[in-house]
Amino acid sequence: MSIKKVKFGEYFLLLLEIQKSIINYNCYKNDCYQRIGASNKKLTIEEYHQKRLSQNIADWSGQICENATLDDLDLNTIELLKKDIQQYKPSSWDSKYSNKLNAELLTRLGLVINNKITNACILMFGQSEKFENDKRFTGFARIQWQYYPDKDVTKYGKTREQFFIPFYPAIKEIWQKIDSKNDTLANQSLYQSEEKQYEEITIRELLLNSIAHREYANFGMRPFIEIIQTREGITFKNSGKPPFDSIYELEEKKQNITEIEHWLIS
Q1: Which residues of 133-171 are buried (b: 16+ CB within 10 A; e: fewer)?
Q2: pLDDT value at position 81?
Q3: 199 vs 222: CA distance, rounded Å
Q4: Structural domain includes residue 163
Q5: Residue ranges of the alpha helices (H) in the chain?
Q6: Once rounded to an integer, what is the mean pLDDT over residues 161-189?
Q7: How many separate domains does the chain show?
Q8: Closest-CA residue to 210 (of 229, 228, 225)
Q9: Do 40 and 159 reside in the same domain of the chain?
Q10: What percentage of the chain has pLDDT greater than the value 70?
Q11: Residue 31, domain extent
Q12: Cβ atoms < 10 Å from Cβ of 56
């Protein structure tokens, strides 16, 4: 606030100039708030994302990771990506693709921009030993899988495991954990048979969606992606949603991790 003294005839006027309040948007336990000065206004999730879009807030995962280079990436993880493209999306693979440099492949997926590494690229393919103590990623770049042997999660002990950067190989590891507790169900069709409760492609899709559509920039939210599995079902808890209105807009804008999702999910 500034105060100005202006002479008006025989008198002086004091003009109080109050600066416009900085408006911040925060989310806590799935509720969104617009903070104006010292007051809070609760927003719907739709209002929140409209406000964010109107301010042109950049997608954190798409921003360049300062000082990161291709040498910071795990080469074995990138080779795993190539094998998965061959397995899950063979129509996207040709004889020339295996000869592509890693930078070309990651650029095609939107993870490298003008030879610079994005935060998304580090999340998916970064070397764990280089980023495990990096304050830009620690605390929220984590996936937690929990298994409860009973529907009542307070009745018995639980199995828990956490996965860190790089996220890409963690997807397969998490599926193996889920599949190890994957009950078979009776198929009530003409011919009696049993089938698994969960299919790998479905779990991969859910995991890739959770990683791709996360609000990483809002560190006040739940700090990690949480997967809770019981014999009754499985729940994915994740803070955030796509920063645009539809998956098609995401595809058009080539939103980094989402590009991997489109390549690997048939």
Answers
A1: eeeebeebbbbbbbbbeeeeeeeeeeeeeebbbbbbbbb
A2: 86
A3: 27
A4: yes
A5: 45-54, 75-88, 102-108, 119-125, 128-131, 167-180, 200-212, 247-252, 257-264
A6: 81
A7: 2
A8: 225
A9: no
A10: 51
A11: 18-57
A12: 6
Residue with tokens 């291709």: 70
Same domain? 84 vs 177:
yes
Split at pLDDT 50, 70, 90, the class of 202 is: confident
Q: Tens digits of per-residue pLDDT, 18-45?
A: 544 445 556 555 566 666 656 677 776 5
Phi-psi region at 60: left, alpha or beta (left = phi > 0; alpha = psi -120 to 50):
alpha
- Mean pLDDT for 81-87 is 80
Quick check: pTM over 0.70?
no
CA 133 to chain centre: 19
Question: Are 48 and 88 found together in one domain?
Answer: no
Supply angle C-alpha 60, 66, 72, rounded to 5.
105
- Residue 85 confidence (pLDDT) above 70: yes
With a pLDDT cut of 90, the percent of the chain lying above it is: 8
Crossing angle of helices 75-88 and 167-180, in 10° steps, is: 60
* Cβ-based neighbour number of residue 43 at 10 Å: 18
